[in-house]
Structure formats: C-alpha cells, structure tokens
C-alpha cells in the first residue's frame, strides 16, 4: 500500500550508481597522484589508513544469515547471528573477517522493501562495525568452499537508539593476493526489530491459516453398498502423512492463535480415505488398486479436530471454486451460479460433521485477494457478505500516512476485509533454504513493527498468505507468527472480530475496475468452455437422476465432482483441469448408458393383429423407474400401434435385470413399416438412444385357408366316427341285457312246470341266446349293478 512521502531508503538506479562510481574515480585521481609522490608504505599501513571499499570483484563472497535469535530482542538479550560465507571468486581471500554492522533506522515500510530487494548488494550503505571482539576471522577462504560463522552480541552493545527497525548487516572483509588491502567482498542485509517496551496501542493482527489442497477425488464410486470412493492419485496420502505439507500445517498451526480457513472438500476427501478407497491402475485395463492409508487419514483428522478446538473456523465453498473465473467467464453460462450456491450450502455441514465445530460461511476469498465489481457480485450471490481482498488491489486513501484498518464497507451491506499485502506475500518463494526463511521472518516482523509505529489509532490487520503453502513455507510462517504473537507491539485477533472493527473513514472503499484486475491472474483463469462442459454434464445428470430409485448414490458424488471442476487449484494446470472435467462427463455417460433398449431385428406379422415386444435392459445396481417407453409407427396407415400412430407404457426395471414391454399392433395393409422405440422420462425428455426396426406385414392366402379348412374337416369327421362307434357299442350292450332278462323268465317257468322226467331245466342246458357268443356254460349272475348304457362323459376312458 502506498505511503505518503515514503521515498527514504530508495536505492539508486543503475545509471546513477555508474555516475557515482565514475565521479568517485575522477575525484580520486588527483589524490592518487599526490599519494604517488609520498614515500611508499606497507600494504598494511595503506589498508589501515583507508576505509574499507568494495572489491573490484564485488560480491565474490556470498554471505548468508541462516539464523537470528531472538528475532525481536529486548534489553538484556544476546543477539546471535549465524550463517555461512562462501568464496565464489577465483582467488583465495586472506585475513577474512565476518562482522556485524548496525545501519540506519528504517522508519518507512517502503525503505524495508528497498533493503530487502538489495540485501546482497555490496554497494548499498552499511553502518559502522561493532566492536572488533564481536567478529569471526578466517585466515583463508578457498574458492568454492563455505565456512560457517556464529557471532553473539549483547543487545546493549549494539548501541541501538530509538525504537524501530534497524538495518543489520553481516559483512565479509579481507584481501587477495593481487589486491592486498582490506576490502568488502560480501554483505547480507537483514532486519532487527527493536521495541523493548510495550506499545500503548497494539496492532490487532489476524492470521489466516489455510487448509486447502488440490483435487484428488473423482466422481466414480464402487457398486458396493458403501460406494467405495475412487481417487485419481494417492498424493493426498503423502500430504497428510507425518512430515507432509498438510501434516505440518496442522502441527504448526495448533499452537498458534490463528483463524483456520478450510476447504470442506479436503476434509471430505480425507474422511473418504478412512475406509476402503481405490486408485486407478497405471494402464486403462488394470483394476483399481486399494489405497492403504486408512490409519494415516484417521490420525490426521483427529489432529485437525484437536487443533481447531476453541478456534475460529471459516469454511470456504466446497471445492474452493475460482470466483474470478466464474465472474469473468461463467456467469454467461446458465446454471453456473447454481454450483456456487450448492458448494456454499454444503460447506458448513461438511465441516461440522467431520470436525464437530461450527464454521462460518460468511467469507469469500478470491484468488490472491484480487477483485473487481463482477467478482464482488458473484462472491456475494451465494450468501457471503465479507470478501477477503488484498491491499495491493485497493488504494490506501487520500493523504494517508499510515496503513488503515482492515474492514472497508463497499456498499450493499458487503465488507471488504483488506489483508495487508506486504505481510501476506512475504512467505512466498523458496523457503527451503535457512537464509531465505530467516530473511522472511525478519522482514515480516520489521513490516509489522513499522506499521504499528505509524499511528496511535487502533487498527486491525489481516494476514492472508498463499492458499497452499509448502511445508517449508508453513514452517517459516509459524516462526514469524509465533514471534509476532510474543511481541510487544501486536496482539492476536480472530477474523470475525477484525471484520467487525470500526472502519477508517479516510480509507478508500471504491472497488477497482475490471481493467485494473491483474493480467497475470486473468491469463490463468478457467475458460468459458470449462463452464459450458460443467453445464452440459449437469444437464445430463438432471436427466439421469429422475429415473433412479436412489438418487443420492449418483447426485451427491457427481454434484461434488462438478464443484471440484471449477476449483481455484486448477489455475496454471489447464490440461489437467480439462482431463478431470471430461472424466466426470464420460463416467456419467457410461452410467446412464447402462439403461438402454435392446436392439431388434426385422419383425414379421402374418396376421392383421399381433403384439411386438421391446426389451429394456438395466445394468445398474439400483432399480430404475419413472420411465416411459414409446413405440411409434412411421407409417400408421399401414401399421397402427395401440390404435394410433404410437403407444406409451410405463417402465420400471430392477437393478441388473431386463423387462420386456409388449405393444398391440394392427395391420391395415401388406408391406414394410418402420417402427421407432424410444425411452422418455416422465417430464417428456428423451432418454438414451432410440431403437429403429422394420415390421413386415403379410396377407393370409387362399392356400392357407384351404389347409386350415381341411384340418377342421378332418377333426369333425374324426369326432363323428367316434360318436357312431360309441352309439353301436351302447346298442349291443342293451340287446344283451334284454336277452339275459328273457332267459331268466324262462327258467322261472320251468321251475313251476317240470318236464316228463321230473327234472327242471338247468342253466347248463339253457340255450345261449347271444348271436355272437359261442356256446359255453352260463356265467354266474353279476354282483354289481348293471352298467350304464349312456355314452361316456368328456375325458372318460372308453374301452373298445
């Protein structure tokens, strides 16, 4: 942020530096001529008489400050500086000495920036060296060899004046064989904050501590009851494992008074790892490998729960959507803002269910805190009324000589919480080197102290670092924040309190125009095609879900995957982002294609009326319903379906089954008719691909009628023959019974009138009156009732 009249400490331009050096050489020429006329002295005497000056091979020795403790000393402390000196030149440096020099007081924030920018410039001014006893000497520095140094000085010996930030320099002086006089071969400037007494008005500082990662989960889930999640890589396991980036963020942040800013997608992804999860194989045909980091995931979540207990937690929208990309390219695509609203709605619930804390969803955090009117509009559309922006996108205000407090009302009930740009960006870059980390810590403290000394006004300052700090950056941040919270000029404050603090009426509140949005950030935004693909996938999902008996098995994983498709973490990775979004859409197409019509070949109808079956196949694990199958005749004058041009029937198919649906048809003429089968959802939208087949109608011919008639006649004749045969058999049985009755009557008469011999006629002598029976002894009388002479009933057996 700009500061009024802040020009002090600005380094000279290269042209001015060249002019200065040339002038010094010209001015020294007469003096050199005079010296040549004096008696020659020893090189040591010459060096003693002249002040140290820059070597001709300036910066030939690299000086690093790897540690400075304490970072902000107080009275009675001992300041210890350690690091290395490395001879990068071609000649050895002899009589080398490493010493400390306290420079001028840096009373503006821009002067600190200048010193940091030129921290290794041997031409930059340095102060007087502290007492010679606080130096470390090396007899010889060999080229390419590093030497470690450690210097400890009581704070009282530093001769520090008024409170503030001092330029502390570590210099390496010595001489070479071809230049045998004392010279400065290397320097490293750093910062020494000096505020031994408590400030009357401390700065309230809010530090945002982000727990955000890249996208790891896909839309795919297993077909089992638990819906085993599928990850596209196992990199998240490395981040949460001991020593990993996210593991360090939690371990370091738990001891600090910070506001946790969390992407709920990260928590959901780690929770999915606590049970069985899968990772695709290297080849497309490989089966998914089972992830084995369940215990690591459980441990990390437990540590997060402990770390955030009694701390403020801010939940970003699920997946951390890129608000600037959405504002610049997504709002013109129908439905894009719907995804932001859904991502915001599920955020608080996700955090609470996993961490068991209430999270605020009132904040929106655009990438690098850069905003314009469209970003503000999109950010607040999902319910956020506070935007985390960075100070380099807002002007400080007219005629302000200090950094104003963080909250700025920007209209419409929205507050821009302006994070300090210098404090927020100081941890960027490579922090794996101890020298870089130490310099960042000292610069952070220096900026904070200088800010605190600007005015007696009570102010709230917010630090919004990079979204995904590395493990080394997190370590540096923790050291700096820990030192700040122990300082005499600052006190911690949570984000909500900072946002509610009284705004500075003199601070600028105008949102920067669209043209002021950084071009470097605009180049990294998601393109319009990304949001078009997301909208297309959502439309397919809407069609698919209405037929499912259990929509949540599909809607939830795909909805969250669409949120991930617009994540801010895709910036700088356009190819990977496109692959992810295409994978989501392709997998949805695969699932919806599991419900389809079976292809049919040509069907022949040999009559005027018949049924046509059409089969619906469901290869999903769950049942489908709310589907309508429509069979349409393209030539209804030849072939009618259900008495019309088409007929519809509802369809419901269990998971893993097929269902045949029959349609009644009526043929009006011979020939071929094309029929189209199409599934529809109940709202009338086509589902899947249609199936088209031909139906051939053939007329019933005279020959066929003759054959059928002959068959019917044969059946009639056979029945008549059976009838006559049964009738004849019944007549013979009746005649036999009549003859037997007559014989019985004759026997009775003979018994009353015996013959001349005095004997009655016997049965043996009785004549057999049956025409077709041979003569034989008469059978005994039957002991059963007489058989019926009536024709046998239907289905009865007839003995012939």
From TrEMBL:
Transmembrane segments: 700-720
PROSITE patterns from the UniProt entry: TONB_DEPENDENT_REC_1
Protein name: DUF6049 family protein
Pfam family for this entry, one: DUF6049
Listed Low complexity bias regions: 42-65, 497-508
Start and end residues of each stretch annotated as Disordered: 42-83, 486-522, 730-800
Keyword flag Electron transport: no
């Amino acid at each position: 942020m700009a500061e009024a009249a802040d020009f002090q400490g600005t380094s000279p331009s290269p042209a001015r530096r060249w002019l200065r050096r040339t002038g010094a050489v010209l001015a020294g020429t007469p003096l050199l001529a005079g010296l040549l006329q004096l008696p020659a002295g020893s090189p040591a005497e010459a060096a003693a008489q002249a002040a140290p000056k820059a070597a001709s091979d300036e910066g030939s020795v690299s000086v690093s400050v790897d540690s400075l403790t304490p970072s902000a000393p107080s009275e009675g402390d001992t300041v210890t500086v350690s690091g290395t000196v490395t001879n990068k030149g071609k000649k050895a440096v002899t009589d080398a000495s490493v010493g400390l020099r306290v420079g001028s007081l840096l009373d503006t924030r821009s002067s600190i920036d200048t010193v940091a920018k030129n921290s290794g410039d041997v031409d930059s001014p340095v102060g007087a060296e502290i007492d010679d006893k606080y130096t470390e000497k090396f007899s010889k520095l060999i080229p390419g060899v590093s030497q470690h140094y450690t210097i400890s000085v009581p704070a009282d010996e530093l001769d520090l004046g008024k409170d503030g930030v001092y330029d502390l320099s570590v210099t390496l002086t010595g001489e070479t064989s071809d230049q045998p006089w004392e010279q400065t071969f290397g320097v490293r400037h750093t910062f020494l904050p000096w505020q031994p007494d408590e400030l009357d008005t401390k700065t309230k500082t809010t530090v945002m501590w982000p727990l955000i990662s890249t996208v790891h989960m896909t839309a795919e889930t297993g077909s089992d009851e638990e819906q085993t999640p599928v990850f596209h890589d196992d990199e998240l396991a490395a981040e949460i494992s001991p020593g990993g980036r996210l593991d360090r963020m939690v371990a370091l942040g738990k001891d600090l008074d910070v506001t946790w800013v969390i992407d709920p997608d990260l928590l959901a992804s780690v929770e999915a790892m606590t049970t069985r999860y899968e990772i695709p194989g290297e080849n497309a045909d490989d089966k998914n490998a089972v992830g084995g980091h369940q215990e690591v995931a459980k441990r990390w979540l437990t540590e997060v729960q402990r770390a955030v207990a009694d701390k403020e937690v801010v939940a970003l929208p699920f997946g951390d959507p890129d608000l600037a990309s959405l504002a610049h390219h997504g709002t013109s695509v129908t439905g894009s803002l719907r995804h932001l609203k859904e991502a915001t709605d599920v955020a608080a619930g996700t955090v609470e269910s996993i961490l068991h804390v209430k999270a605020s969803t009132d904040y929106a955090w655009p990438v690098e805190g850069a905003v314009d009117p469209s970003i503000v509009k999109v950010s607040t559309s999902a319910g956020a009324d506070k935007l985390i922006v960075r100070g380099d996108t807002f002007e400080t205000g007219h005629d302000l000589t200090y950094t104003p407090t963080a909250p700025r009302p920007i209209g419409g009930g929205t507050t821009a919480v302006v994070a300090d740009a210098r404090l927020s960006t100081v941890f960027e870059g490579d922090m794996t080197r101890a020298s870089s980390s130490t310099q960042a810590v000292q610069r952070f403290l220096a900026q904070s102290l200088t800010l605190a000394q600007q005015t007696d006004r009570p102010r709230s300052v917010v630090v919004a670092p990079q979204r995904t700090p590395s493990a080394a950056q997190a370590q540096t941040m923790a050291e700096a924040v820990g030192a700040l919270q122990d300082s005499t000029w600052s006190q911690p404050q949570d984000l909500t309190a900072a946002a509610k603090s009284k705004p500075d009426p003199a601070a600028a509140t105008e949102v920067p125009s669209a043209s002021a949005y950084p071009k470097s950030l605009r180049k990294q935004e998601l393109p319009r095609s990304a949001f078009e693909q997301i909208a297309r996938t959502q439309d397919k999902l809407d069609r698919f879900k209405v037929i499912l008996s259990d929509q949540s098995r599909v809607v939830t994983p795909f909805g969250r995957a669409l949120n991930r498709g617009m994540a801010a973490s895709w910036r700088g990775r356009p190819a990977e982002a496109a692959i992810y979004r295409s994978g989501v859409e392709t997998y949805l197409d695969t699932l919806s294609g599991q419900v389809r019509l079976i292809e049919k070949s040509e069907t022949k109808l040999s009559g005027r009326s018949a049924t046509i079956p059409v089969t619906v196949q469901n290869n999903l694990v769950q049942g489908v319903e709310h589907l309508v199958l429509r069979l349409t005749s393209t030539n209804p004058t030849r072939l009618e379906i259900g008495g019309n041009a088409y007929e519809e029937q509802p369809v419901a198919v269990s998971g893993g089954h097929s269902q045949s649906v029959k349609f009644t048809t009526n043929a009006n003429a011979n020939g071929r008719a094309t029929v189209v089968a199409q599934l529809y959802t109940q709202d009338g939208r086509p589902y899947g691909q249609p199936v088209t087949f031909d139906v051939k109608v053939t007329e019933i011919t005279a020959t066929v009628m003759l054959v059928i008639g002959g068959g019917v006649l044969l059946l009639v004749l056979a029945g008549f023959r059976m009838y006559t045969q049964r009738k004849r058999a019944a007549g013979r049985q009746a005649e036999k019974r009549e003859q037997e009755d007559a014989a019985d009557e004759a026997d009775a008469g003979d018994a009353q009138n015996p013959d001349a011999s005095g004997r009655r006629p016997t049965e043996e002598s009785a004549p057999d009156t049956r025409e077709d029976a041979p003569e034989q002894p008469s059978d005994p009388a039957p002991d059963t009732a007489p058989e019926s002479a009536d024709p046998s009933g239907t289905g009865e057996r007839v003995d012939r």
